[in-house]
Amino acid sequence: MSVRRAIHAGSWYTDSGSELSNQLDYWLNQADLTHGPARAIIAPHAGYQYCGACGGYAYRQVSPVVVRRVFILGPSHHVRLLGCALSRAQKYRTPLYDLIVDTQINAELEMTGQFEWMHMDTDENEHSIEMHLPYIAKVMENFKHQFTVVPILVGSLSQDREACYGRILSSYLADPQNLFVISSDFCHWGHRFRYTYYDRSYGSIYQSIEGLDRAGMGIIEKLNPTEFTNYLKKYGNTICGRHPIGILLQAVQELLRNDHTQSASLKFLKYAQSSQCRNMNDSSVSYASAALVFE
Predict the structure, then answer these.
(1) How does DSSP assign 1-60, residue by residue?
(2) pTM for the complete prediction?
(3) What are 245-271's pLDDT values in tens digits?
């Protein structure tokens, strides 16, 4: 059995199961259930010291009683990928307990001809999926033997490719037993990220960053993939999970086109920054958590 190791444990988050469980409990209890049961969430993937609290607001909206399968869409940070890739692993290790990869769904997705396979070292080095595993394990701990995960690494997609994957995944999104986790941080600002957009009408740099992020968040809440693409083209905001978000927006549109009885509502519930930028030599990363419900 091939097992993906939790190689970011002990650095990006604690490798102590009991300590991790207590941290996650604390962050989940800080958030209120205000927009659930979530069928999809958007949540960050930085070190927990920076974004663990923010992520709790998204995971608080999940109803573990309902969920039997968790799709995790994370952007590729280290390998060039023009499509999406599936995991060869059968288990994903976490400090809490191992998560079982859904090989049946992987086989179904492979049959579409649109997916490739990650090498294990790519899988293990990528943090965008791993940083969600402890939260998933925690939220689902009372049902730990009753659910599977479907990790999907998302490459640099054109809008047409986002639409293609949205169509493929929309049938899975339509099933209330499936939860979609969309892994994304928001603005990466500063010279080290080669992004220093500053609208002085907002006041300080950190306020400009928040204004820029909130404009994007508002467009995402409208569930309009074309408008989101246009926003990214106009401002170049360094939202690293823009393609996983694009796939989600396309999947929602496909689902609503095929089922006119449903309506969808996506809301952002928390926003945070790693630090407040006040001069051009500062840098920060933004984090935002959202939940999608069908009504």
Answers:
(1) --EE--TTBTTTB---HHHHHHHHHHHHHHS---S-S-SEEEE--S-HHHHHHHHHHHHT
(2) 0.97
(3) 999 999 999 999 988 778 999 999 999
